[in-house]
Amino acid sequence: MPVCIVSGCGNRHTKASKIYLASFPSEKDTERRKLWIKNVFKDQPYRQPSIYYYVCEDHFEDNMWEKVRVDGKRKLKKNAVPTIFHRRKCNDSSNECVSQMSEDVRASELDEPKIIHTAPVHSSAISHLAEASDSVFSNEEANGPSDVENDTEALKKRLKQTEQMLEEARNQLTELKKKFEQEPHETNKIVRRLEQSNIQLRKCKKKLWKKNKLMMEKLNRQNGLKRAVRKMLTEDQLEVLTRKASRGIKWSIETMTKALQLKFLCGSIGYEELRASNMPLPSQRTLRRFCLQLMSKRAASAKKV
C-alpha cells in the first residue's frame, strides 16, 4: 500500500480515505525533480527518489491543482511542487520520539529496493537511534534530572526492542538471500536437463525422418520393379516367383505360347538354361503335353467338320 514519504506524515491511500498520492517527476523533467527533492528531503539532501516514493495531497497548495474536472477527480498541474511541510516535533513523551525515529529507519531502508543486495542494517539502525536519542537528551536537559533519567530508561528499553526487531529482520533477510541464491541453481539444473532432452528428441526425430525417407525410396523402387516385371511376366509367372516350386501351377495359354516360342528359338538346351537361371517357365514335359492337347483338339474339330 503506497505511503507518503514526507517525514512525519505517513498518510496512506485506502478505500476509506482515498488520499491523493503524487509520484516524483520523471528524470526528463530535471528542474522540477530537483525542486521536489530539495523540498521533501531537506534533512537528507543526498537521498534520491525511487518509483516507490509518493507525496500526499496535504503538501500542495491550492494553486498547484487544476480546476474542478467534469469527472470530479483532482489532478495536479504539470509544474506543481510540494511546499507545505508540517514536521512533527518531539515532546516530553518518549513514544512520539521513538515513532519519529522508527519512521526515519523505515525511510532509510527504502533506499535499497532489492532484498538480496541489502547491506547489514544493524549498525545503521543503531546509529540513527543514537542520533535521535542524543537530540532527545539535549531537548530535555531543562526539565530536571529525574524526568530525564526516567525518559532515558524508557527510551533505552524501546531502543533495545527496536534493535531486536532489526536483528530479526536481518536474519530473515539472510535466509531469504540464501533461498534466492539456491533457487536459480536448482532452476538452472532443470533447464539444462530439459535442453539435453530436447537435443536428444531432435536427434531421434532426425534419425526417424532419415529412416522414413529410405523406406519410402525403397518402397518406390519396389513398386517400380513390380510394374516393370508385370510388363514382362504374366500373373502365373509372378506366382511361381513367390513360391519355392512350380508344381501345381496352372499355366495360362499366354505363358505356354511364350514358352514354346522360346523353346523353338533357343532349342532344348537353351530353354533349360533359361529355366536353370530361375526364369518362371514351364518344363519341356508340360510343353509336350500342351502340344498333344492342342493336336487332339484340332483333330476333334476336323472330324466334326
From TrEMBL:
Domain THAP-type: 1-85
Coiled coil ranges: 152-186
Keyword annotations of the record: Coiled coil, DNA-binding, Metal-binding, Zinc, Zinc-finger
Top-level taxonomic group: Eukaryota
SMART domains: DM3, THAP
PROSITE patterns to which the protein is assigned, alphabetical: ZF_THAP
SUPFAM superfamilies: Glucocorticoid receptor-like (DNA-binding domain) (SSF57716)
Molecular functions per Gene Ontology: sequence-specific DNA binding; zinc ion binding
Database matches in InterPro entries: THAP1/10, THAP_Znf
Keyword Metal-binding recorded: yes
PANTHER family per UniProt: THAP DOMAIN-CONTAINING (PTHR46600), THAP DOMAIN-CONTAINING PROTEIN 10 (PTHR46600:SF11)
Protein name: THAP-type domain-containing protein
Organism: Microctonus aethiopoides
Lineage start: Eukaryota, Metazoa, Ecdysozoa, Arthropoda, Hexapoda
